[in-house]
Each structure stands twice: as C-alpha cells, then as structure tokens.
C-alpha cells in the first residue's frame, strides 16, 4: 500500500487474520476503502465476508494485523467505533419487529448531522409507513428501515452485510442505487456484502472475491464487469486466467 492510499483511506485492513476460538476464518486480509467509495465484498457462503465486517467494526479482535478507520485504530469497544462513525448493518437487519417504523427511527437517532428528513429523502417510501409495525413490513421495506437507521447514526464508514438475504432481486435492484447515492451525497465509504454479483458490480467502485478466508480476486468493479468469468473462477477458488 502506498503512502498516499494510507493517507486517504477511510477504512484500512492490513494483513488481518481473524476467526473464532483461535481458528482463523480470514487470513492475511487487506482492504482499503476511500471516502465516497463502494467496495463490493463477494464470495460463496462461509468465505469469510461477515467475519471481515465484524473485524472492521471491532466485534472481533484480529489474531494478527490491524484495522484502522478514519485515521485511528479500531477500538475493542464496538460502541466507541460506532460513535466515531463506523457502522454495521447486520444481515438480520437489526430492526425491532414489535415497534413502529417511527419508533425504530427514533431509537437510532443521535446528535449526528444527518437529519431524519435527509434520511427519509433517500427512502421516501418509509414516510408513508411511519406508524406501521416493523414486523408487518415487507423484507425490502425492513431493509430500507435498517439502512435508514444506520444513516441516522451519521456513519462515515458503513458496512452492509447481505441486505439481499431473503429479498427478491427486484427489491435489491431498487436499494442498491440508493446506496450509491448515499455514498456520493455523504462522501461515505461503504463495504457491501452481496450475493447478487452483477447488481453489486453495477454500483460498486471496486470489488473483492473471498474464498476460504482469503482474497481470491481484487480489482475495480469496471474491470470485473468486463471479466465476469474471472469472478466466477474466484468463487470456486480457481486462479484467474
Ligand atoms: N461464531 C462462529 N464460531 C465459529 N466459527 C464461525 C462463526 N461464525 C462463522 N464461523 C466460520 O467462519 C467461516 C467464515 O464465516 P463467515 O464469515 O460467516 O462467512 P460468510 O459471511 O462469507 O458466509 C466459516 O467457516 C464459518 O463456519
Ligand atoms: Mg455472512
């Protein structure tokens, strides 16, 4: 990594090995995301995508290597990282099903600069659902709410884990351009774990394919859109042609 990249990265994972109970699930991971950039993190089930995100927010402490965000090392206390603007949207969405949309949003509010109005401008559909209990929303609407809640915490680095889990591709198709707009409007660094490869590559700036806890392929999204077969190969752990 060059000095210039180091200076401008919002999130920087450097040679990280991390896992569970002393067993590595990701090895020698390197990730760098600049403000306003979307990195798509791709790979089959069990490849280490969620583990990578958990390490980035400080929920897992690396066995070796380091994670830095916004110019300083990631703390062991997740809340501290969240306060600094490093926010994870987990794949279970982290919404409260028994509460209304309005109450879910109220709980997420902090003294951040991102107002509820600005947030709802990104998710206009939520305006008409404010009094609905979250458990009655569609999967796509719940995902909108999860993203809106995250946005209210004023993130500078946003990590989104498999928002398409259980969603129809059409719902994902609607949400991804919103994430692109959020990255652009707020100069936010976003790491997006996604199973829909083409949709992810259509809005990302860069992409990585993980396989068995290692980076099998890493390039610009434009490059990978042109070389889809290399993405498929990396999914199976095959070397790029
Ligand atoms: N809590 C856990 N305890 C032990 N092993 C885990 C745990 N969570 C994930 N793993 C293992 O770590 C590896 C990577 O998992 P994960 O990061 O969840 O993959 P992905 O998100 O790409 O599907 C898998 O082999 C998985 O079984
Ligand atoms: Mg996962």
Task: Summarize the structure in words.
- There is one protein chain.
- The chain is an alpha/beta fold.
- The protein has a single domain, classed as P-loop containing nucleotide triphosphate hydrolases (Rossmann fold), CATH 3.40.50.
- 37% of the residues lie in helices and 25% in strands.
- The chain is built from 10 helices and 10 strands.
- The strands form 2 sheets. Strands 6-7-8-3-9-10 form a 6-stranded mixed beta sheet, sandwiched between helices. Strands 2-1-4-5 form a 4-stranded antiparallel beta sheet, with helices on one face.
- The chain is globular, with a radius of gyration of 17 Å.
- The site of magnesium ion has 5 residues, from helix 2.
Short note summarizing the structure:
With 241 residues, this protein is of the alpha/beta class. It contains ten helices and ten strands.
What name is given to the CATH topology? Rossmann fold
Major sheet: arrangement of strands:
6-7-8-3-9-10
CATH homolog superfamily:
P-loop containing nucleotide triphosphate hydrolases
Q: Output the radius of gyration.
A: 17 Å
N/C terminus separation: 24 Å
- The beta-strand count equals 10
Topology:
Blueprint (H helix, E strand, L loop, with lengths): L2 H6 L2 E10 L2 E11 L4 E5 L6 H8 L7 E6 L2 E2 L4 H7 L1 E4 L11 H8 L7 H7 L16 H14 L4 E4 L8 H18 L2 E5 L3 H7 L2 E6 L2 E7 H6 L1 H8 L6
Parallel strand pairs: 3-8, 3-9, 6-7, 7-8
Antiparallel strand pairs: 1-2, 1-4, 4-5, 9-10
Helix pairs in contact: 4-6
The structure holds adenosine-5'-diphosphate (ADP) and magnesium ion (MG).
